[in-house]
Write a structure and sequence with these properties.
The structure is a homodimer. By secondary structure, the first copy, chain A, is of the alpha/beta class. Chain A has helices at residues 12-23, 37-45, 56-60, 75-82, 99-110, 154-166, 176-202, 207-212, 216-221, 229-238, 240-261, 267-289; strands spanning 2-8, 27-33, 51-53, 65-68, 91-94, 117-118, 120-123, 143-146, 170-173. In chain A, the strands form two sheets. The first copy, chain A, has a six-stranded parallel β-sheet. Chain A has a three-stranded mixed β-sheet with strand order 7-8-9, with helices on one face.
């Protein structure tokens, strides 16, 4: 399906794409590009990539498809580096968790958004990072959101869709702005809350004891606070606008909860908790209904 | 170890204690007491209890140990029902997630806190409830916090400690107030945040889509929002004072995060996220160090 694939950023996301495509024989050779040689050498040793380079210009030469899996803050630099090195037929896609910012970065670097660029977001991951954390089944039954623009070449979109399907993912289309609003609520806000909660507890006087007596609920709740801080700084900054709106709404929700605590009958608390439980149980049902 | 054990409230917590003690042969007969006959009948059918009654007075007669595993809002009623039916040698303990409120309820019902009452809290659970959700290994390697008072009979405390150890738990002692402060931070606040977040998302315009595109991180983060709303209403009301303080601190943390989002350099965000990741990774290490 893809003769020559270039992956810029061979970590959890990039490495898992390579492994998944390799497993189903959907890729010829894979060129890995990154700034850290130890990680690239591990990627070579693990057989995740066939060739390694730290030079994006060399990496993209002759590529049929270039997948950018670098932190959002590095996208602009990569676009600037590769813009004159891309062949006309080369398709570009990415794995960034915010789509408007990637599109703006491309616009700024190229002067326009290339017809062969298909912005995308595989909604998958774990709290671990680096190529050693990658695995072939990461995208199995996951969702990949593509946000092509009006000028995007349909053949480019089609290849990117087929690539993700080959990895076992379900591909969904929506606008970049819609994507960013939804992800602010379901992913970026929860990460901020988890980071914020663990930070708050760590700053408390009895922090050692606090963590010692935490139960399983806290472990699950805070799992995403073990995510890569740099990557999440970039995501939060890139989705700043949507995230601030959502954060503000959540602060209002916490004020409502504080008010509810002041009502000794507990009616409001019970209403909120019951609505939440119903919604989450329904949401889990939805998930398990899917293939 | 315990000839005749009475469990009032045969759900996840009470049922798991029964199963665990039975498994290691640390209990003679088990009397289950509850208000819902269908649940009691399932408990009988599953062999979790030997006898069932919906009358607390009959349930505690001749008991060596009475374990109260009812929602916090029901504790006062139970104390009022059983106060004249308890034999002198009967030891009482409980599984309530807030300790000051249980102690106050006992004080109000008995006019004093009985010498044979050992307030306790097994820090364990899942988001499921009812006797069918109970299992013998729930307390294995978990922590049980006991908060005896100055007048508590040391022999009573000793038996309760041995009972929990027999279930595989580690027993820890602290004051009721200290317990309530710590649990507000590590358990009650996270539950409020999870309930609040799911409620917020459920009330958003695109709620169906929002839940559909939620990734694994959200699933874990929100797991505790599938907990029993009635039980959690009681916990939050019972630990109202400590919880309001913690909630207020968390709202301040969210204001800090909002400010941090306004700094395009991302320095503050990176600081907060890095501190949180370091604390959580350290906390996980602590957990895995333990037997």
């Amino acid at each position: 399906m893809i003769e020559r694939l270039t992956i810029i950023g061979v970590g959890l996301i990039g490495g898992s794409l390579a492994r998944a495509l390799r497993k189903v024989g959907a890729v010829g050779e894979i060129i890995g590009c990154g700034r850290g040689w130890p990680n690239l050498e591990r990627a070579l040793a693990l057989g995740v990539i066939d060739h390694a380079t730290d030079d994006p210009v060399r990496a993209v030469q002759g590529a049929d498809l270039v997948f950018l899996a670098v932190p959002l803050g590095a996208m602009a630099n990569i676009f600037n580096s590769i813009k004159h090195a891309l062949a006309e037929h080369t398709i570009i896609t990415d794995g960034g968790s915010v789509k408007s910012s990637v599109i703006e970065d491309a616009q700024r670097s190229f002067g326009f958004v290339p017809n062969n660029m298909v912005p995308g977001h595989p909604v998958a991951g774990t709290e671990h990072s680096g190529v050693e954390a990658s695995f072939a089944s990461l995208y199995q039954n996951s969702r990949v959101i593509l946000t092509p623009l009006a000028n995007t070449n349909p053949q480019a979109t089609n290849l990117v869709e087929r690539m993700w399907r080959a990895c076992g993912a379900n591909v969904i289309y929506m606008s970049a702005a819609h994507h960013d609003g939804i992800l602010a609520a379901t992913s970026h806000l929860p990460h901020m809350l988890a980071f914020g909660l663990v930070d708050l507890l760590a700053n408390m006087q009895d922090n050692n004891e606090i963590f010692r007596y935490a139960a399983g609920g806290f472990r699950d709740f805070s799992r995403i606070a073990s995510s890569n801080p740099l990557m999440w700084r970039d995501i939060c900054l890139a989705n700043n606008d949507a995230l601030r709106v959502t954060l503000q709404k959540f602060i209002e929700e916490l004020h409502n909860l504080t008010d509810a605590l002041g009502d000794p009958s507990g009616t409001q608390l019970l209403d909120i908790f019951t609505r939440a439980k119903t919604a989450r149980d329904h949401y889990l049902e939805q998930l398990s209904d899917e293939p």
